[in-house]
Write a structure and sequence with these properties.
Order of helices and strands: EEEHEEHEHHHHEHEHEEHHEE
Number of domains: 1
CATH topology: Rossmann fold
Largest sheet: 8 strands, mixed
Strand content: 15-25%
Bound molecules: adenosine-5'-diphosphate, magnesium ion
Number of strands: 12
CATH architecture: 3-Layer(aba) Sandwich
Number of helices: 10
CATH class: Alpha Beta
Shape: globular
Radius of gyration: 21 Å
Length: 328
């Protein structure tokens, strides 16, 4: 099956000022990411804060233009200026529904304006379109007449999802969309996303630091570190047969993957990620890696893997399941 969205060696650099140097320096927020998401699939993107997940989300939805590399949608190269129709097709749901919804406007007017803007429904059909949007996100029709502040956090996030769905998108990019919610609201929103995918065939890119949720929702997972994808594979493979030392450390430190009382989770990873400002010739994880050896600082590790599982670590090649197939 061909990919609906493809990123090919995408880089996003920012010029930033630091105390260490007078001239602006380059921060590589996204540093050569290649990914493909097939239609109706759900890709999870995980990694510590600052590793470039939101910048990558911005590239996917067209809020950021890559410094280098290509984005393809349905086989077509996407330029710096996206058509209105393409912008409609890829929608984002943000972490904070309070900040992303205008507190003064009623839900009905926000949704109706979007539907109008894209001429998606004739005027006579507006009320039933709005009612079916509420039904899609499991909210009662009276929410249409509410303002965001009159709703709970979980309801607001469902309104934010309704807003994304109002323009009949093909892809939802959810950037930490459930992170600010309490556990029961999280479960409601995650179930909703799973249903939308099953019912509407939506393609979802789900960015989260909650590995437990990623495991329940996603088909495949990309693990990012310092602007790069260090490991990618089917969700079950990542959760049961991860090869990258960083992925394994993340999994060990994830409380949400261990049932209380059955397994002690390991302390979080020690040290700080190498700053994206630092020029590292080798593997970006090498300064924190328990398995690092001299060769790791010489050159960025190529991807090694089999099938859809790839790992950017020289040690991954030693694993018998991989042999020495080089993916890239
Ligand atoms: N507009 C910007 N200008 C300068 N640096 C930025 C900007 N946006 C993000 N960054 C930097 O890029 C890196 C990646 O940020 P981000 O994509 O937000 O990571 P994440 O979402 O994984 O926490 C961070 O070092 C962040 O400080
Ligand atoms: Mg972020």
């Amino acid at each position: 099956m061909s990919a609906l969205i493809e990123l090919d060696d995408v880089q996003v650099h920012f010029k930033v000022r630091t105390r260490r140097s007078a001239a602006p320096v380059t921060l590589r927020a996204v540093d050569g990411v290649s990914l493909a998401v097939e239609r109706s699939r759900c890709l999870g993107v995980v990694g510590e804060s600052g590793c470039g997940k939101s910048t990558l989300a911005g590239v996917l939805v067209g809020l950021r233009t890559p410094t280098a590399g290509h984005v393809r949608y349905d086989g077509q190269d996407v330029g710096a200026r996206r058509s209105k129709d393409l912008r409609r097709r890829i929608q984002m749901v943000f972490q904070d529904p309070v900040a992303s919804l205008n507190p003064r406007r009623r839900v009905r007017s926000v949704l109706a304006e979007l539907i109008d803007c894209h001429d998606l429904v004739p005027d006579a059909g507006m009320n039933s379109a709005l009612a079916s949007l509420m039904e899609m996100v499991n909210l009662p029709p009276r929410v249409l007449d509410a303002r965001p502040r009159e709703l709970s956090g979980g309801q607001r996030q469902r309104v934010a999802i309704a807003r994304a769905l109002a323009v009949q998108p093909e892809v939802l990019v959810a950037d930490e969309a459930v992170s600010a919610l309490d556990v029961s609201a999280q479960a409601t929103v995650v179930n909703l996303l799973a249903d939308l995918r099953a019912d509407l065939g939506l393609t979802i890119v789900f960015i989260s630091h909650d590995l437990g949720i990623v495991r329940t929702l996603c088909d495949s997972v990309a693990v990012m570190y310092a602007g790069r994808v260090v490991e990618e594979g089917a969700a079950e493979t990542i959760f049961t047969a991860a090869r990258h030392p960083y992925t394994r450390a993340l999994l060990r430190a994830a409380p949400d993957l261990h049932r209380p009382g059955t397994m002690q989770c390991a302390p979080a990873l020690e040290g700080e990620p190498a700053g994206s400002l630092d020029v590292l010739t080798g593997c970006p994880f090498q300064p924190r890696c328990p398995e690092a050896e001299a060769a790791c600082s010489l050159a960025p590790p190529p991807y090694v893997g089999s099938g859809s599982h790839r790992t950017a670590c020289i040690h991954a090649a030693d694993h018998p399941r991989f042999g020495s197939d080089l993916v890239v």
